[in-house]
Amino acid sequence: MTVQIAATYDPEGFKDRGFVQAITEDGDAAGPARAVADLEAEIGSARAESPRWIWPSTSDLAPALLRRGIRVDRCHDLALTEALLLAYEGRCGEPRSLGAAWARLHGLAVPEDRAEGALDAPAENPTTQPALFEPDRSGLPPDADPLRAVREVYADQLRRVAATAHPGRFRLLVAAESAAALAAAEMAHHGLPWRADVHGGILEEVLGPRPPDGSPPREMAAAAADLAAALGVRTLNPDSAPQVTKAFADVGVRLPSLRRWELKEVDHPAIPLLLKYKELSRLYSFNGWVWRDTWVVDGRFRPEYTVGGVVTGRWAARGGGALQIARRLRKAVIADPGWMFVAADAAQLEPRILAALARDEGMAEATQSDDMYTALADVFEGSRAQAKIGLLGAMYGQTGGGAAAPLALMRRRFPKATALLDDAAREGERGRLVRSHLGRTCPPPSQRWQAAIAGDAEADAADDSNRRSGQVARARGRFTRNFVIQATAAEWAEVLLALLRQRLRELDGPELVFFQHDEVLVHTPGEHASAVAEMIGECAARAGRLMFGSSPVRFPMSVHSVECYGDAK
DNA sequence: GAGTGGAGCGCC
DNA sequence: AAAGGGCGCTCCACTC
Questions:
Q1: Which nucleotide C1' is nearest A264 CA?
Q2: CB-count burial class (<10 Å; 0-12, 13-18, 19+) for A361
């Protein structure tokens, strides 16, 4: 049986001091409570028995452990679990810290969660010394018995998990989320290999040389000047929507908006120049030299990931826009000498998730193919593109225009899948909560929704009010419709990540360095690349079985072993 | 001048 | 082909 150990820093805040205690699988004390002078060392020394650590928050503990070379196998993250349970219970957004959970349990005043600060530069510079004294983050009052709080909250969480509709599934969710938190800390610790010189080369090629004074680079300035000339104005700030709109109006062109897809519809010689400027300006401001110098340190890009940071269970990332790395910059992601990347992404994850959730036989059949859309082209009048529109449109709640025909086909040919989505949308429109397969639960409707549904509480004309409340309700429906798919896809990916993280320990060297919703990047000594690739495929299949049992739905991974991430797709 | 909200983009 | 889900980030415009 797995040994379980409760562990927590000293809430009085003396760095490194802490408490540990063996606990039973029900959360009862199974050994003496011990105060330890160096909690991190204590955790490191227990490595051999591979315990499950029951602790307040992985994101508070794991970075410090990793800096000292300590990796743990598994944990139960009380804060992440509390957040999952609160959402399940319809109390999304209430404070989730150990202290908050403990206060709720005892009917005491619940402390707010400590706010996450903004991130302006890499947070974990390995060379900086940790502070000697850090404010406690558990939210426990100083006079509380921290181990007792851990035990009580853990036991309470086990009871609440058991009370869910599908306790086995929820346990898998808790395990995956906790493991994901460990993986996230490891990725932040390793960093994504990033060649600043290659990045600089891309910038120079596209933007021109870096101006010494931080002024706009040559190509960007030229695009702005060309645009102004084409519109017959002396100066123009292309970043100013009012200025651009007015300049076009003055030459007789009314722009519906400045969105790219709408601009592309407009026939005027200045439009391509504006689009060119927008493209260059995006690269410059988002991933330009300033970004590189801020975020790439010692050949690594180190963002900070927030597990469960998105309501659907996707990860969020703070700092550097880690989950929006422009494709063109992936050329700068180059493995260390002798190392490789194994890049794997789940092919068409969301429609496969839909097929499994809805137990739709027709769609399940199509998942046997590595390219579902091609497999379904026959259904959609021979068009792969139409198949994609039909499936994505159904999952996103698209209604109008060219999606109508493929959506109608979708409805006729895959009634079970369509019904599942329509049910989720209807629940949302009525203000009810929907859940993922494992039990992650969407937030309740916004105040705005409540107000809109209340309707005549507003002073507006009745017609206007009804129309608006209809819009708000449908928006909520689109959200819940998509939630069941996106949230289930996200948990499938977390299960995969948890499994892969464990499997990788069989090898010496491979490290998880990036994870983006349905895609994972392993940095590995070259000789292990093929073994890693094989593991990923096995873990994907096992993730499907853990989530959906004997479902026939396949979850193939597209796996590439490359030296440069830019070559992966 | 600091903070906020919207527009827009790019990632999934 | 039209414009539908989730984010983070940057810019501008606006407010105080």
A1: C2
A2: exposed
Residues of chain A (187-226) having a beta carbon less than 7 angstroms from strand C: none
CATH at residue A434: 1.10.150
Distance A9 CA to C15 C1' (A): 44
Q: Which domain CATH number covers A212?
A: 1.20.1060
Are A241 and A267 within one domain?
A: yes
Cβ of A257 near strand C (under 7 Å)? The reply is no
Residue A528, in any domain of the structure: yes
C1'-nearest nucleotide to the CA of A274: B8
Pairing of strands A511-515, A519-525: antiparallel
Nucleotide nearest to A489 (CA to C1'): B12
Q: Clarify whether residues A376 and A439 are in a common domain.
A: yes
The answer to whether some atom of strand C lies closer than 7 Å to the beta carbon of A368 is no
pLDDT greater than 50 at residue A457? no
User: So what's the pLDDT on residue A126?
Assistant: 43
Is the CB atom of residue A551 positioned under 7 angstroms from any atom of strand C? Answer: no
Boundary residue ending a domain (A262, A292, A322):
A292
Statement to judge: residues A105 and A12 lie in one domain: yes
Nearest residue for B8, CA–C1'? A259
pLDDT of residue A118: 60
Strand B nucleotides, any atom under 7 Å from protein beta carbons: they are 7-12
Domain of A456?
A: 351-481
Pairing type for strands A304-306 and A316-318 reads: antiparallel
Please indicate, yes or no, whether residues A28 and A147 belong to a single structural domain of this protein. Answer: yes
Q: Which helix (H) or strand (E) holds A102?
A: helix A98-105
| Tally of structural domains, chain A | 4
Which nucleotides of strand C lie under 7 Å from a protein CB? 1-14
Predicted local distance difference test score (pLDDT) of residue A459: 45
C1' of B7 to CA of A336 (Å): 40
pLDDT score at A135: 58
Establish if A278 belongs to a structural domain.
Answer: yes
Answering whether pTM is above 0.90, one says yes
Q: Please indicate, yes or no, whether residues A419 and A448 belong to a single structural domain of this protein.
A: yes
Give the integer Cα–Cα distance in Å for A375 and A390.
13
CB of A312 within 7 Å of some strand C atom: yes
pLDDT in tens, A246-286: 999 999 999 989 999 899 989 999 999 999 999 999 999 99
Please state the rounded mean pLDDT for residues A239-244.
94
CA A363 from centroid of its chain's CA atoms: 26
Considering the domain architecture, whether residues A38 and A76 belong to the same structural domain is answered as yes
A487 assigned to some structural domain: no
**Residue A396 contacts strand C, CB under 7 A:** yes
Co-location of A340 and A385 in the same domain: no
Pair A364, A410 in one domain: yes
CA–CA dist A80, A57 (Å, integer) = 7
Nucleotide nearest the Cα atom of A399 (by C1'):
C4
**Residue A215 buriedness (CB in 10 A; 0-12 / 13-18 / 19+):** exposed
* CATH code (residue A153): 3.30.420
B10 C1' closest Cα residue = A324
Q: Which one, of A275, A226, A276, A231, lies nearest residue A251 by Cα?
A: A231
